[in-house]
From TrEMBL:
Name the UniProt record assigns to this protein: Mn-containing catalase
Positions bound to Mn(2+) 2: 66
Keywords from the named record: Calcium, Manganese, Metal-binding
Biased composition (Basic and acidic residues): 313-326
Species annotation: Amycolatopsis thermoflava
Length: 349
């Protein structure tokens, strides 16, 4: 059950009307990171929360507060629109200042809502339920909440600089403060979920053994320049490996032959595109392969009849294979247990 109190959480009184600014404020009501979004996001997270107690209560406390923020903003918008032109626009528009105001005003705030706020953003795009995140996984959701409050505070800060009205600024100061504490609380709640043993630092903390271990600790260097390698993430004990020269692991991504009834432009032999599909890179004589056989991880130079080295773990063998390939200036191919190529690195000179 929800109850309504006839008092605003904080005062929402502009010193004077400003229909142009009323439109801008719509972003904080019905924008992707507006108060309607956090309201609905927290309400659905709370309704879907499967543990009674501190987490659910924190979510519902905040959800209910956010309804009050929608109310404050809607009230502010209505007051900013007080006296906004509703008639005789042709005459009013002859005054250049008035024309500017009319030009910048949200027509829906006059035509549709009669001088009040609308559930839309500053460009009139209607609020959308797909803006919200409520997954039932509290770690994933709390991270989304901290991000939503950060975006909300960012936009509030920008809007704070777009007005000189002391009354509007007064309310936005309060909103900024609430966005600050909401960010803090969600970040603290994330730590608490971990401390309580409910979640770890990856969401979800399941299937970590099943996921492809070859690919859970590498950053693919896929944009120009070497700077992505300069963060602390790629140094130290627990570094994420930076793949300087990553190669595609799959074949060409060609779509299948279309059904004739779809009239898709198609040529069976690929003619007309001026080229033939590239063959996936083959292993050349002298390249180094890391693979699994007879219960061990091995490194072998292509063309040699015997393994150069073996290792107890894949990581150990892979590191040795990488060294060998670097020294020889050849490609290093790492296979999964099932023999499929998982990684390929070029160390060619
Ligand atoms: Fe809020
Ligand atoms: Fe908030």
């Amino acid at each position: 059950m929800f109850r309504h109190t006839k008092f605003l959480q904080f005062e929402a009184k502009p010193e004077r009307p400003d229909p142009y600014y009323a439109r801008k404020l719509q972003e904080l009501i019905g924008g992707a990171y507006g108060e309607m979004t956090v309201t609905m996001q927290y309400l659905f997270q709370g309704w879907n929360c499967r543990i009674e107690g501190k987490y659910k209560d924190l979510i519902m406390d905040t959800a209910t507060e956010e309804i009050g923020h929608v109310e404050m903003l809607a009230t502010m918008v209505a007051r900013l629109l007080e006296g906004a032109p509703a008639t005789a626009t042709a005459e009013a528009a002859q005054d250049p200042v008035m024309a500017a105001v009319l030009g910048g005003m949200d027509p829906q705030q006059a035509i549709v809502s009669g001088g009040g706020a609308v559930p839309a953003d500053s460009n009139g795009t209607p609020w959308n339920g797909k803006y919200i995140v409520a997954s039932g996984n509290l770690l994933a959701d709390f991270r989304a909440n901290a991000a939503a409050e950060a975006q909300g505070r960012l936009q509030t800060a920008r809007l704070y600089n777009m007005t000189e009205d002391p009354g509007v600024k007064e309310m936005l100061k309060f909103n900024l403060a609430r966005d600050t504490v909401h960010q803090k609380q969600w970040l603290r709640a994330i730590e608490e979920l971990q401390a309580d043993g409910l979640e770890s630092d990856i969401a979800p903390g399941a299937l970590l053994d099943e996921e492809d271990q070859t690919h859970n600790n590498t950053i693919w260097h896929l944009s120009d320049g070497p700077d992505g390698n300069k963060g602390t993430w790629s140094s130290g004990e627990d570094r994420i490996e930076y793949l300087m020269d990553p190669k595609p692991l799959g074949g060409p991504g060609s779509a299948p032959k279309p059904a004739p009834e779809l009239y898709v432009t198609y040529a069976a032999n690929g003619s007309g595109n001026g080229s033939t599909a590239a063959e996936p890179a083959e292993l050349a004589e002298g390249d180094v392969e890391t693979f699994y056989a007879d219960g061990r991880w091995k490194n072998q130079v292509v063309g040699n009849s015997r393994a150069s080295s073996t290792g107890d773990t894949k990581a150990e063998a892979q590191a040795e294979g990488r060294e060998l390939a670097r020294k020889r200036g050849v490609a290093h191919v790492v296979r999964r247990k099932d023999g499929e190529i998982a990684e390929r690195h070029e160390y060619g000179r």
